[in-house]
Every structure is written in C-alpha cells, then in structure tokens.
Amino acid sequence: MSNNLHPSFERDVLIRFSHCDPAGIVFFPQYLVLFNQHVEDWFNQCLCMNYAKFIGQRRIGLLIVKLECDFKAPSKMGEKVMLGLGVSEIGLNSFSLEMICHTDNELRVFARKTLMTTSLDTNQSVPLPLDLQTQLQRFAMLN
C-alpha cells in the first residue's frame, strides 16, 4: 500500500496454473481477476453486503472508472501470496481502493482503483446507496 495506508482486509491465495502464462508466472490480467474476487469477498465478509444480490437483485454496478497498477515482481505457479485491500477515498457516487499482492517479504503488485456505482438498467451513474456508504465509512474508520 502507500506509505500511510495499510491493507485492512487480507487473505492468502494460491497461484494456480490457470493464473499463469507459458513462462509459469502470473499473466498480468489475472491480477485484476484476483483483485475483483478479493473485492467480492470483502463485500461479503467485511461490509456484510451480499455482492451477488447487490449486483444481481439491486441492479447496481461497480464500474471501474480509474485503474493504475504497478507490477513490482512476478508471482509463480505454486506460490502463496497475500491479497490486501484498503479504502482510500469515499465520494458521492464512487469510492477508491488501494490493493496489493505480496508475500511476507516482497511486494508483487500495487493497484489503485476507483469504482463508480451505476444503474445496470440505465447505465448511468447513481449515488452510493446509503447502506454501502455507511459500511464503507465504518470499514474505513475501523481500519
């Protein structure tokens, strides 16, 4: 994470064959898949909001409107890495996350992404739902 923000939701992930390119290292788009899975777990476990219902039943999308990734070192098949996530900003219709992939002694990837809430019916931006805004603020304050 950045020098003043530390990951506040972490979990171990095994790097699998399906994550890797022919050289046996993680193919860079797979990090984005891993990070999105981590956001889903964070919604379910930390925000206590069912991600599938949030998207499917409530018809609220989380559109990535800004993404920046720094790839520091490769990850190889068979390694266990740690994914981490922290909230860096909460806006009216968006929030920003800082995410990392690391081992105990090496940063592999650092990413910043901004997610905007949208209506899946109109494809237009909508304000953060009050329950999401409340949970984001609670999570940010606790961590």
From TrEMBL:
GO molecular function, one term: hydrolase activity
Entry EC no(s): 3.1.2.-
Signal sequence annotation: none
Keywords of the record: Hydrolase
Pfam annotation, one family: 4HBT_2
Keyword Hydrolase: yes
Name this protein carries in UniProt: Acyl-CoA thioesterase
